[in-house]
Batch of 2 targets.
Target 1
Amino acid sequence: MRGASLGVTLINALELPLDNLTAHTQPLDAVIIGAGFTGLYQLWSLRKLGLRVQVVDAASNVGGTWYWNCYPGARTDSPSHIYQYWFSDELLDEWDWQQRYPDQAETERYLNYVADRFDLRKDIRFNTRVDGATWDDSAHCWTLTTNTGETFQSRFIVTALGPLSAPLVPPFKGHETFTGRLVHTARWPREGLDLKGKRVGVIGTGATGIQVVQTIAPEVASLTVFQRSPNYAVPMGNPRYNDADRAAMRARYPHTREAIWTNFVGFDQPGQTRAFFDVPPAERREIMETLWADGSLKLWVSGFMEIFFDPAASEEVSAFVREKIRARINDPILAEKLIPQDHGFGTKRVPLENGYFDAFNQPNVELVDLRATPIECITPNGIRTTAGEIALDVIILATGFDAGTGGLTAIDIRGRNGVSLREEWKKEVRTTMGLQIHGYPNLFTTSAPYAPIAAFCNAPSCLQHQVQWITECIEYLHTHGRTTIEPTPDAEQRWLAHHDELANQTLIAKTKSWYTGSNIEGKQNRLLSYIGGLPAYMAACAEVKQQDYAGFEVV
Ligand code: NA7
């Protein structure tokens, strides 16, 4: 397995040259911000090096995304056999996945199991939000401040914030006047919210809105779906697993754990090898039907790559999906409103769905097309569009996130010479491979812009690679008696130019969505995710490491 060397090299934490620290608080080797998928693995990895590590998380428990997003219907769109950790054979043997696409509760249980199994909690400070982090250039360390008043000093910071941790609450007029319950899906009450018999409005029809709508439609009195942009979605096939299924899955693990690193988006199924237009039309159709019938994201991530580059191929696949959606909706006028026409299939995140389109055939579900009748304001009784007021008891905002950057800019990060990352990123968002930022020594970022994990990757595959790279980098610094690492401006510029060159060839970069930052007013419009594929990204990262961190200043 990749990163196996981590188990054999043990650094004595006391050997680290921390003498310069003005240690009025607890001097640490590393603070990890976030106790989700990435943070837990990063803690396990750095602990293996013998480092003094503290994880800090605003939540009251582990889980990250899977802690906060406990809204009805929350579920992974990656199958369980690739939405997991690979670092422990024991864990792979012990954990029994219950279904192909685990729901939020199952994924959260898994992460809690990992935290207990590897005794991770003792190094996690819950209910503590990091508000600021300031680099001290003479002591070569960071000081982190928190909302509880506790401060930490640390040589390294690893941000494990997830790409989607800063919820977007659109500034609707009258927001505060609503007398019912208004909730964002990513801040769903942990104690639950009883929607039975209520008049509910859902704003947003991305992956989240789709999951919410299909889940609550049967139980609410009325459901009004406020749609600005229709979305493609593929029907999910979600069988429950029995022991025989799990045994077969485990038998494939050696293959799976190799396959994900060689796959463009960190899945385990290869895409089509022949060029789209080299395949005769009837056979293309047959292939699309087979991928569609799989009940997974294969049509998107294991289909024809041309959907990302070639408008003609994109149109043919999109027309195929539109036909499938049309067939699900009884009212043909409504069907046309629910079918995307302004972007190609796969140029935005494709959700899986489980009854979403059928919900609109129910008498208690109504679609409000916000392109025809935009929202004017939220009123004490509900939502007013240009067509009038709709009375509601509950408004659910499924309006998404300030992706990639929002988690980082929520923290007042001050690098060399007190320069604010938040202010710098208002001018231009810059990173080197999504792993470090010039001007911010010893700050390692995961799920940050210009790495695949910012959007276009099976998250656990890409994040595990990032954690391994960061861990090996810190190990290198120690074994070579170095205390800081920071990318040079040239290396950063080269990576950005490479990123832009690839991104600008794609239809994804030309489509409005959170992938390009265009869901946030005033945010720079640039593809967040590195689009050269996970293998190319990993090769670039490996090259940096093999060349003793070429492009990085190591002191
Ligand atoms: P998304 O995919 O960003 O979807 C947000 C939805 O909310 C989308 O339909 C937006 O319409 C809509 N939206 C956002 N702001 C407004 C306003 N002001 N008025 C009306 N509608 C609005 O977020 P999700 O949470 O669904 O998914 C994020 C990721 O989480 C997903 O891709 C998975 O990876 C997991 P728009 O399309 O902008 O017209």
Target 2
Amino acid sequence: MIKIAILGSTGSIGTQTLDVVERNEDLQVVGIAAGSNIVRLEEQIRRFHPRLAAVGDEKKAAELKSRVADTDCRVVGGMEGLLMLAAMPESDILVTAIVGMIGIRPTVEGIRAGKDIALANKETLVTAGHIIMPLAKEYGVRILPVDSEHSAIFQALCGEEPSRIHKLLITASGGPFRGKKREELTNIKVEDALKHPNWAMGQKITIDSATLVNKGLEVMEAKWLFHMDLEQIQVVVQPQSVIHSMVEFVDGGIIAQLGTPDMRLPIQYALYGGRRRFLPGGRLDFAKLGSITFEEPDMETFKGLPLAMEASRRGGSMPTVFNAANEKAVGMFLNRKIGFLDIYAIIEDAMKRHKVIENPDVDEITGIEQETYRWIEGRW
Ligand code: NAD
Ligand code: MG
């Protein structure tokens, strides 16, 4: 039996993880956590019988506690509750499907408690890769990628020597505005940006896909996960989202992982630590597909990618500023306070005024996050 705790069980990745669990008799959920959606959490408690449920919002935690008083699920709240869930003795693996930098502390806690990490929360490696990767090595735990691109690379590397990698080719759909120029993006509406051509995901990551910030975060994540130099990572636009990413080896051979856009595959692959199981669902039909096409990313229009590269190249606390500024800006865009292109302007501004701290610890990272938020609030 593989025992699983899920941080962010009510979200897009969280609910798909539960779907995978439900289909496999040797997977069991022992803990779930979410921000505030206690209606969904109650449903999940009654269906999956976890031992522990954590709610980010303390008030909602108290409410959930009385709602599920008839079950034997213990309810805890706040950051302390999330940390408790991350380290719960009953689990083997922690799925980090929470959105935002709030995922860092529970991930650190999970690693220290010896849990393998099925990592969906990309903010963790982007901002704290220099802490997480050595810590995972020290505690002998595996960081198993859930993001489809990183899972594709993980799958392509099966049986290969890491020293024989020449470069990673991370694929991108290009998002809903692929082919558009800057002038055409001024009046983009929230509804349009939320329409991803191929993947159904949470709101924040869907906007990040439209700005290409998501691809930038993925490049930074891949750098840590696979111990690569930034120069060894290339982004290739592949609009049909059929190739999930590729690895080029020193002999020129390239291995790609293909499939329909279904996150349950990388989730399941991670939960089983890189072993395959049957997964029902659509299969690729090449004759129907007809063609797979490739393009270069338009870095002039979609500045999310070059700004991410710049932040990553500078390193230290700069990726935290990039990420925090983007989180804030995306929230403001979703609340219709700023336009689409302002997201880039805010990130660029925040990065320009930041004085980099080398090797920031977790407290410094969260401090810089809050400081970046406040600075943006005061200006926009
Ligand atoms: P989502 O918005 O659908 O879900 C987020 C989850 O986090 C919810 O369960 C929410 O309750 C929880 N959460 C938010 N704030 C919280 C808090 N303060 N305390 C406790 N829980 C809190 O997001 P998602 O699309 O599932 O993405 C989750 C993460 O996975 C993100 O980092 C995203 O970049 C990454 N990711 C998602 C996909 C995808 O297909 N959705 C693919 C690759 C990577
Ligand atoms: Mg991805």
